[in-house]
TrEMBL record:
Name recorded for this polypeptide: NADH-ubiquinone oxidoreductase chain 1
UniProt similarity note: Belongs to the complex I subunit 1 family.
Annotated catalysed reactions: a ubiquinone + NADH + 5 H(+)(in) = a ubiquinol + NAD(+) + 4 H(+)(out)
UniProt key word Transmembrane helix: yes
Main subcellular location: membrane
Length: 294
């Protein structure tokens, strides 16, 4: 990001600043955790734990290679959607339990944002799922052997990138933690390790959503063409695709200014949802017309 924005960035700790994340993690680990005097102690410390746990649980149905998820769920996508819906509870509890107006406003913003963008998120997944006719992530990957879904669903992919940026609270849609008006949003009062938990959850969700995007649109662990691969190579292929998408998310963050909260909500309800309702009807109609439903 420092290079993209033509600034120095953190470049002193380790070669090219590569040890900066480790030094930041160590700093947060040894700092004292400060509890606001009027805060609800139990919920204050439970909220970051809930957020991080839900972020990590999302890895269970992910197939890193052929037939190798932690749990081969036939409803893997439904499971991930359920977890994404529950994620708002950690944020809401964090803002409410801190007894701070800044944190509370941030948590209310996050609740409105996540609830609103759950609907476009679900509609986009529905459009993709119609083609293979399965909610299993492994089946969706195998169905992309002829062609990756990115090619026929390129407009859907553009909308997907916009929705997942909002769903993961990433800039330019990081309004729940907008430091210009809310200091740090819902975790304003959190410090030390609980503060680190929130950031681990955010970046863990960003990595997870990049892997999910690779599976839904870029063929997951498949290489272009009918090429036989080993499980190690398949995992590397999925990793490379996911790293490209992570780079794309950071590129978006470095390139666009933060929007206003009312603009974010208007984009969802007046822009994305009407378009997606039309696409939910259009895509199955095309599949039926050309007789390519599974």
């Amino acid at each position: 990001m420092g290079s993209m924005q033509r600034r120095l960035g953190p470049n002193q700790v380790g070669s090219y600043g590569l040890l900066q994340p480790l030094s930041d993690g160590l700093k947060l680990l040894v700092k004292e955790s400060v509890l606001p005097s009027q805060a609800n102690k139990g919920l204050f410390y439970l909220a970051p734990f809930i957020t991080l746990t839900l972020s990590l649980l999302g890895w269970i149905p992910i197939p890193f290679a052929k037939a190798s998820p932690l749990a081969d769920m036939s409803l893997g996508l439904l499971y991930l959607m359920a977890l994404s819906s529950l994620g708002v509870y950690g944020v809401l509890l964090a803002g409410w339990s801190a007894n701070s107006k800044y944190a509370f406003i941030g948590s209310l913003r996050s609740t409105a944002q996540l609830v609103s963008y759950e609907l476009p998120f679900a509609l986009l997944i529905l459009i993709v799922v119609i083609i293979p006719g399965s909610l299993s992530l492994s089946h969706i990957i195998e169905a992309q052997e002829p062609v990756w879904y990115l090619v026929p669903l390129l407009p859907i992919w553009v909308l997907w990138v916009m929705v997942v940026v909002a769903e993961t609270n990433r800039a330019p849609f990081d309004l729940p933690e907008s430091e210009s008006e809310l200091v740090a949003g819902f975790f304003t009062e959190h410090s030390a390790l609980p503060f680190a938990y929130f950031f681990l959850a955010e970046y863990g969700s960003m990595i997870l959503i990049s892997v999910l995007s690779s599976i839904l649109f870029l063929g997951g662990y498949l290489l272009p063409g009918d090429i036989s691969t080993s499980p190690v190579l398949e995992s590397l292929v999925l990793g490379v695709k996911s790293c490209f998408l992570l780079f794309l998310l950071i590129w978006i963050r470095a390139s666009f200014p933060r929007v206003r909260f009312d603009q974010l909500m208007y984009l969802c309800w007046a822009g994305l949802i009407p378009i997606l309702f039309g696409l939910v009807i259009l895509v199955p109609s095309i599949l039926v017309a050309f007789d390519i439903l599974p």
